[in-house]
Amino acid sequence: MYPKEFLENVIIPEFRDIVFRHPYLSFAMLSIGIEFLGKCMLTEKKTWEIKPENAFKKGTELLSSIDSNYSNVNLKELRNGFAHTLIPKKVLLSEVKHGTKHFDKDSSGKVVLVAEIFYRDFVIACQKILETEFGLEDKMNKDILKVGRLK
Length: 151
Hints:
Layout: H1 3-21, H2 23-41, H3 52-66, H4 76-85, E1 91-94, E2 111-114, H5 115-131
Parallel strand pairs: 1-2
């Protein structure tokens, strides 16, 4: 499976399922997904061997191009803290049904992320990658994942 197929057939639909069935856990998956998106967009790298922090930074830049408010959120907290411990310290996590607004702040200055809105913006970032033309030698034009039976 090629990276764009992986985005279309695995990441987008399976993350959607997680967001709407398990919103709290979706934040961990979305933070991992941001790193993958960053790896896709680091076109100067011809292999997938990219430092995770560089990939995550590139992925957050992509999200910030969709909504500049992301540049004011400590998304590293999701990658470094939440994805490892499932306990956020510097951001607040919510769902649409709670009526909280994406990017609102509480009295201590913590920013609220709303799972469904965060996922929507993540999908827009995926669409940007799907619309990007990559050079023939780019890692994006190479098989990365084998699915199904092994022969």
